[in-house]
Specification:
2 helices, six-stranded antiparallel β-barrel, 2 domains, PilZ_domain, PilZ domain-containing protein, mainly beta, cyclic-di-GMP binding, about 50% strand, Thrombin, subunit H
């Protein structure tokens, strides 16, 4: 799959959206650096990617000497063949001898490449793995707001939940969520959109106790 620069005004321009790598065993990545007229290959692991850049984990003896490089990424099926030039813009030590580097592309990548990687299950917008639930729950809103008569928790993770509600909720609204087993926790609405006759919304847990209570209850139910 070849890559082309994205159109600046394109509706698919995802310069600010990061997609986290998953199934990294199926992704082969390496940094190619020209050193003394010789191309040196540094195997690496992609952590995340956007049309404007990515983060890679790699062991480098002298990272300050290789600001400019070429990133090459392929997958085991041979359908993804990505090669982009760019510049290392930051690094953070993640373990002894290994750092995570920010790699800014020289040109924006075609968003269709990321679409393909999402469809192939190689990258995902979600940093935390989600577990499907499809469980009826109770949602309690603040006094004075319309009561929610019906709500379903569609999936959950250690950081949040996705819900369908018969009432339109509000972004930043705080809710008390209660599972069929009686476990409860507080969440905050991050986004909401219409879904047929219902409303779909994504929420994050307000604290660690809420996350543990809901995750433990739903994991036991599954």
């Amino acid at each position: 799959m070849t890559t082309t620069p994205s159109t600046p005004g394109s509706a698919q321009n995802r310069n600010g959206d990061r997609f986290h790598a998953r199934n990294t065993a199926n992704l082969n990545a390496e940094l190619l650096v020209l050193q003394e007229d010789e191309v040196v290959r540094h195997p690496c692991q992609m952590a995340d990617i956007s049309v404007g850049g990515c983060a890679v984990r790699v062991s480098l003896a002298h990272p300050e000497e290789m600001a400019v490089a070429v990133l090459r990424v392929t997958d085991t099926t041979g359908e993804v063949d990505l090669e982009v030039a760019g510049r290392l813009c930051w690094n953070q030590q993640t373990s002894v001898g290994s750092n995570t580097f920010g790699f800014r592309f020289r040109r924006l990548m075609d968003a269709k490449v990321i679409d393909h990687m999402v469809a192939a299950g190689l990258v995902t917008r979600r940093q935390e793995a989600r577990t499907l639930a499809g469980t009826n729950i109770q949602l309690r809103r603040a006094h004075g707001k319309l009561a929610v008569e019906h709500a379903t928790l569609e999936d959950f993770s250690t950081t949040g939940v996705r819900i369908h509600s018969n009432k339109e909720l509000e972004v930043a609204e705080r809710l008390l969520l209660t599972t069929p087993s009686g476990a409860s926790g507080s969440v905050s609405v991050k986004w909401i959109k219409p879904s047929g006759e219902l409303f779909e919304c994504g929420c994050i847990f307000q604290n660690l106790n809420s996350a543990r209570a809901i995750n433990d209850a739903l994991a036991a139910r599954n």
